[in-house]
Amino acid sequence: MASKRDYYDVLGVSRDVDTAELKKAYRRTAMKHHPDRNPGDKESEAKFKEASEAFEVLSDQQKRSRYDQFGHAGVEGQASAAGAADFADIFGDIFGDIFGGRRGGGRHQGADLQYHLELGLEEAVQGVSRNIRVPTRVRCTACDGSGARRGTEPVTCTACGGVGQVRMQQAFFSVQQTCPRCRGEGKQIKDPCSTCRGAGAVEESRTLSVKVPAGVDSGDRIRLSGEGQAGPRGGPSGDLYVRIEVSRHPVFERDGADLHCDIPISFVDAALGNHLEVPTLSGRVKLKIPAETQTGKLFRLRGKGITPVRGGPPGDLLYRLVVETPVKLTSRQRDLLEEFREIQEEQGSSQSPKRQSWFDGVKRFVESLRG
Asked: Is the pTM of this model over 0.85?
């Protein structure tokens, strides 16, 4: 039995795809392989079913999380009514556009919104609750979203008879299209609401509380269901997606679950060794620097990194030592260093093996060019 293809590959999307792009990818695949457009084509039918199964899983946040962690084994037998409802919405978009638009009287969903939330590294690692102020369109309370003045109701469109579609004759063909007068709603507003002027929604700014889970990173998104723009004519609201941006930290650099930190040390500490106090996200720790440590040396503190938001063990904290050359030397320091250089030259290459091997390599390279 052939193994199932990766759901993300089936739809041709990346693993961090958002909901809007996921729907677009599914629309493209479904339109291409739908049986009505490919009668008798078994391969297209199989690809259509494969794409529908992939979308059913990836459009559900819980199923998608299980699939990301465990693959196909995590979502076997997990079909649900919610998934079927999502399919109905998608196919309403696809085949309504192809075969003549939606039926009149539908309550269309409002647009989704996106908000960029900037966090400090500590906030992203530990989690935080933040209040955000979002400008959006909300349902008009004066007309309860109908767009008609209170006490009145929208009336049946006279152009389409409430169907939402009109039939146009072009030569020998009869083409059905969305009614231009009511825009597919099947209703017209004769006496519009004075507050929203018939739109059914008004501009407003709202303050929302966003709970950011621990371990988020730049690019992660938090979905607030129903907090997007109000739907037209009292339709359901869209969703609000809060996109996380983690600001640059003055000490640590993040790499997935790991943290990196450069530590400048003097060449004396590098040569003789020392104990240094170094930072972590939860305080300071002592780090032992062995004698004769070279610049670029990495020290790893296991488990002192970040616990990923999607689960798994915490990462590590890695320190990279950078040997710093002293500046603004006193005359006494210069004398001591001159004396040190004379002694080192007397010792030969035994105290600088890397330096000597590098110059030997350069010498061989130059000689090979001459030969």
From this structure: no
